[in-house]
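As a next step, the fold was encoded as tokens, giving this record:
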Amino acid sequence: MSDIWNPWHGCRRYSDGCRNCYVYRRDESIGVDASKVRKTAAFDLPVRRKRGGGYSVPPQSALFLCMTSDFFIEEADEWRGDIWRMIRLRRDVFFTVITKRIARLPACLPPDWGGGWDNFRLICTMENQREADNRLPLLLDAPIKHKGIACEPLLSPVRFNPPLDDRIEIVVAGGESGVNARPCRYEWILDIREQCKNAGVSFWFKQTGANFIKDGREYKIPRRLQHEQAKKANINLD
């Protein structure tokens, strides 16, 4: 089972996929400035211990890291070393980072990184063709043992160049949520799936988004049904 670890909160919009960011929507609803990056009370979560001495996060857990920020945002540079130390210590936990800031990776890795750590996965967001062209070469060249791609929110057709290969473990695709969601077309999803199938890469159609177009018809899908409708399409590839 996967859980979430947010050692800091807040982010700055970085590319087109950030326009309708859910973190901004949620923070604005409670009068919080989402652009202010700050440490959270969960900063040391993986190394906390229970009264009996064991870790609060048990061995064999999986944690998604920085889901209300970006792990490589500049404002967190002074804190990231502590996070790397916790990831290094908890080799029995698998950590996943989803980022748009793949260009900052070389400047943010710890000195003992080498060719990557077995318990760390990096998923790079590529929401449209421009960002796929910019970010895919950086991801492929990155010294990371476990790599994935998130085409979410998917805002245009995406053709991966160079084509996908076994350096990529999974591609996740899905539409945009929220009242201002931009359209996601089913043919875009299917084309990415076909590229994954041809390369032998796992594919997960995660959610439809709120504004979904299939066979020329536009569907307004409530948030509570977006994951369910994607699952019903039955197009995932293991």
